[in-house]
Amino acid sequence: MIDMRTSLLDYLRGHLPNAVYLSFEVLQVPRNGIPAQAPDRMSLEKILGEYLGVSNDMWVALYSEKSNPNATYLAWALTIWAIKRSFF
After folding, report:
1. Strand, helix or coil at 34?
2. pLDDT block averages, 10 residues each, the chain of length 88
3. CA triplet 5, 73, 12: central angle to 5 degrees?
């Protein structure tokens, strides 16, 4: 499980068992002089694999607090790269 709540403090106060914290800011990378772009596939794989320990054979649940789109953003990024991977 990946906890994407806005506050690390909220994560530290209590999270679902075995959940890891991922800050939304980590997913916003500068590209070609433009800040806050979605990560490319290599960056996303590094973030999820090397930093969080997520592998291809795992099911992953994403969550954040109410009215927080962070988990949805990560789901979107994963979907985009899955679609691109199947077409190329």
Report:
1. strand
2. 94 95 90 84 88 88 92 88 62
3. 15
Residue in the block written with tokens 């954040």: 64
Q: Name the one residue in this structure whose structure tokens are 């949805």.
A: 72
Beta strand 34-37 with 29-31 is: antiparallel
Give the CA distances from residue 32 to residues 26, 29, 37, 69, 73, in Å, rounded to whole numbers and listed in that order: 17, 10, 10, 25, 21
- Residue 63: what pLDDT? 95
Q: Is 21 exposed, middle or buried (0-12, 13-18, 19+ CB in 10 A)?
A: middle
